[in-house]
Amino acid sequence: MHAGNPDRIPTSQPKGNAPSGIPTVGIWRSGGHLPAFDAEGIRAALADPREPLHVVAGPDGRLGVATGGDLIGADQVNGVPTYPLLGSLPPVFPEWLGDRAFLEAHRVRFPYVSGAMANGIATSDLVIAMAKAGMMGFFGAAGLTVPRIAEGLDRIEAELGGTGLPWGSNLIHAPNEPAVEKATVELYLKRGVRRVSAAAYMGLNPMVVRYAYTGVRELPDGRIHRDNYLFAKISRPEVARRFLAPAPADILAGLVAAGELTAEEARLAAKLPVAEDITVESDSGGHTDNRPLGALFPTIVSVRDEMVRTHGYTRPIRIGAAGGLGCPSAVAAAYQMGAAYVITGSVNQSAVESGLSPYGKQLLTKVGLADVVMAPAADMFELGVKVQVLQRGTMFGVRAQKLYETYTAFPSMDAIPAAEKAKLEKQVFQAPMSDIWDRCESFFAERDPHELERANKDPKHKMALVFRWYLGLSSKWAIAGEDGRQLDYQIWCGPAMGAFNDWVKGSFLEPAESRTAVQIARNLLEGAAVVTRAQQLRSMGVAVPPAAFTVSPRPLS
Q1: Strands, DSSP E only, in 13-122?
Q2: What sign results for the dihedral spanned by CA atoms 378, 382, 387, 390?
């Protein structure tokens, strides 16, 4: 292939160098169709990325695109129209966009994953649908009780058990609830959940390390086998380094002492990174550092390469991309940067299989690129950590921010001025704060009595728990479709949702009831393949029309 960009290529020399200096590689003989030299014809040729393309020079010197036909020698013309051939492009299948090592390691057809949207928004049905379509999905276990997670696993195993189709579940770092985090890991190990997406980890702890290395063993040929695959979702280089290094010796020793890893597993762990699948999360819904993928992804790739050299790893370490992937061009760009796989999140919340309420899904279909906002997070409220949420159609972002400002301004609920307190009780809590505290007492008496002990000693922490009541329930109201609370719905959402809505406008994917997770995925992949092919063709000097980089969704089988 040649990547020149001439205005004219004389066609008088079928072999060797054209007068302009552009080398030809042979002759293309037309079959059922002549080459396309106009914008419309070139775009039509790009519609099916599975068809090989040939770049040829026309009689007037313009570069064109040919399909079918034959590649021949100079003595095989026989009166059939022929054109000097400058190069050929092989097919681009959606399956080939990512890293083949990812496909082989996880036994999937497509390098595409649906993310673990918390509180069960990434439902069992969504995970099942993705697996049956040759992709992978993670169950949204974060925020659910361990028995509720077990119910989700039951449903997945009932459909996928024995099929060999891959799937996974989420493990969220819960600094306020370490017992729940530990119980979740123990459930996954007991149930044989082989793929886990670890999220919100700024460092390593025994729970995530235990999952990563349980079942590690040396095979007779000397290779090391891992039972479990940990996908580490990260957005900072320092966090990536922790997951790309072997686990700290003190954590491994503690796990061995507790009987939670064997001595042999700990020995082999010293040779392996904690995670061999690293998901680079850029600007996304929910917890996010709002980093642009174009800056973050290459940085993490450099960290990976550095860690491979430092530790002498020989096994593949796969880097995936997430965040902002709402249209084919964005997905294609992620693969072009070297993503082994892509993970989509926000766009799947509006899918039929999503656990979000019908009203919430309808809100998402109206989202524009700028209709999102950062708001205080329920799980790390006191630390000032924020999540990205839907702004359009809901007052959650404004009300949540008001609660955080009140928390930072006053030492206790009793210190809040009466008028301001009354306004919060009417607009936000829809009940007296004393009533909300009663509900918090009942909840934490069962869930975590330590929180009550701390609140009784620290009135500011008591205020935080009351405020967290609103932040925590607002996402559950959006899932349940709580009547009367529509303006308080907390819907995690990134700008990808706006890009997606713009892309599907006027197509069969515009209505919420038509948005299946699989059709979303297949169209994003198909579109990414077309965009990739268009860019390849442009790099060979063909005047590819701008419209060729826009792919309209269509039902795909």
Answers
A1: 26-29, 53-57, 63-66, 70-72, 82-89, 112-114
A2: positive
Tell me, rounded to whole angstroms, the distance of Cα 436 from its chain centroid.
Answer: 36
Q: How many residues does the chain have?
A: 557
What is the CA 378 to chain-centroid distance, rounded? 22
Angle between helices 293-311 and 328-336 (to 10 degrees): 30
Angle at alpha carbon of residue 291, lines to 115 and 400, rounded to 5°? 75
Between 517-539 and 328-336, two packed helices, what is the crossing angle to 10 degrees? 60
- Residue 525: both structure tokens together: 């992949």
The residue type found at 245 is A
**CB-CB contact of 445 with 437 (8 Å):** no
Burial of 161 (0-12, 13-18, 19+ CB in 10 A): exposed
- Secondary structure (3-state) at 196: strand
Output DSSP code: residue 427.
Answer: I
CB 537 within 8 A of CB 56: no
Which one, of 148, 187, 527, 463, lies nearest residue 335 by Cα?
527
| 136-to-126, 179, 197, 239, 479 alpha-carbon distances in Å | 10, 28, 12, 24, 23
Q: Which two tokens stand for residue 172?
A: 């969220």
What's the token pair of residue 8? 């004219």
* Residue 427 buriedness (CB in 10 A; 0-12 / 13-18 / 19+): middle
Q: Is 125 helix (H, G, I), strand (E, B) or coil?
A: helix
Q: What are phi and psi for residue 214, nearest 5 degrees? A: -65, 130
Q: Which residues contact 315 (CB under 8 A, 6 or more apart)?
A: 224, 272, 276
pLDDT in tens, the chain (557 residues): 333 333 333 333 333 334 345 678 888 888 878 999 999 999 999 999 998 999 999 888 889 999 988 887 655 566 678 888 999 999 999 999 999 999 999 999 999 999 999 999 999 999 999 999 999 999 999 999 999 999 999 999 999 999 999 999 999 998 878 989 999 999 999 999 999 999 999 999 999 999 999 999 999 999 999 999 999 999 999 999 999 999 999 999 999 999 999 999 999 999 999 999 999 999 999 889 999 999 999 999 999 999 999 999 999 999 999 999 999 999 999 999 999 999 999 999 999 999 999 999 999 999 999 999 999 999 889 989 999 999 999 999 999 999 999 999 999 999 999 999 999 999 999 999 999 999 999 998 888 888 999 999 999 999 999 999 999 999 999 999 999 999 999 999 999 999 999 999 999 999 999 999 999 999 999 999 999 999 999 999 999 999 999 999 999 87
CB distance 18 to 57 below 8 Å: yes
